[in-house]
Amino acid sequence: MNFDMLHPADQIVKIMNRLYYYGMTTTTGGNLSIRDADGTVWISPSGVDKGSLRREDIMQIKPDGTIVGLHRPSVEYPFHLAIYKKRPDIGAVLHAHPPALVAFSIARKIPDTSIIPDAGILCGKIAMAAYALPGSKKLGDNISTEFESGVNTVMLENHGVVIGAKDLFAAFMNFETLDYCARVQINASILGGKLHGISPKHMEMFKLKTAPIMQEFSYSVHTGEELAVRRDMCDLIHRAYGNQLFTSEQGTFSCKLSDGSFIITPLGKDRMYLEPEDLVLIRDGKRESGKMPSRSVALHENIYKTDPDIRTVIVAHPPHLMAFAVTDSGFDARLIPESYIALRTVRKMPFGSTFMQPALLARDITMQKPVCLVENDCAIAAGTSLLNAFDRLEVMEYSAKSLVQTKSLGAGVVKINDDEVDEIETAFGLK
Fold it and tell me: CA-to-CA distance for 278 and 404, rounded, in angstroms?
């Protein structure tokens, strides 16, 4: 989907729908706006169900202040206009109250974006605006003053967050990343392990992670196997996004075909709306013409070369599992029989392994050791099929969530003992 080609009203409806059904706003909470080329501001209405917005519900505020539409514009529209006035480069503004970011706003703290590399890059410097009455001129002044200083992300004391960007999808992507970062940090705090961020040196290394340089190849005949894999991958990618295992532009699926080639998710495309034709075929080290694969393509390619039995690889960033990746807390899969059977040992690899030494990391991912965490980066799950690898990813995240919730109970973690592990391994042929 080319989001830029949607009408401003349709863009607002789509993004508000995602905010609502992703649990990032309430029925009447949050507001979005877009400033179009002629200076008209399109903005979500006040007091209308955010879960069922229609394009005709979206309000307009003309450059001369005239209001057009069926309802009243959001009561927060003054701060939207104030931001646009002080920042001509901003084309869209997003304001919402997701629970994790509200928790930080109540504590009057800013999430630590150094724990996740993309968060620091996308969100940049984050400011905190002083509390003021919603819809008031004072709140508009407080927020727009922070934007005037050059920041694009502003936390609001006891209120939520405001993000400005060149377009609405960019604002949503930055917002989603910040909210994800906040959820990871909260989960990490519950675990009680020491939180570790990415050092400036390692951050500079990450910035060198660019789009892969690969030759292209063209082809026009698609086998039934390839088309089925493209279809099934998209189904699971959409499910991964809906289950919060992926974010809009983070998360990579790949699947190997019988001829040794493999299909992988593209770089920079919204995971929620991926279609089979968006996926990229990789054959003999070359990429399908006109398409750019995920930046982790070298890791996937090396894993397939290392263990021929692996047919699917998933790289993801689930919020409970990543709490273990950003702390010194260890993840032990001896929780319930199902978690041990699916995961066995969950190892933790150093930051940079995925992009600095993909061939070396690939040697450690086999069907005997199919999962691992990479510090401050991702989780990796391999399997003999799409569903097999996806199940491992889900089991890892659900197990991590159970561990976080166990910690929140103030109880100790009682693991399956060695004799019970031996019994499981014998019964299920894991030895």
Answer: 36
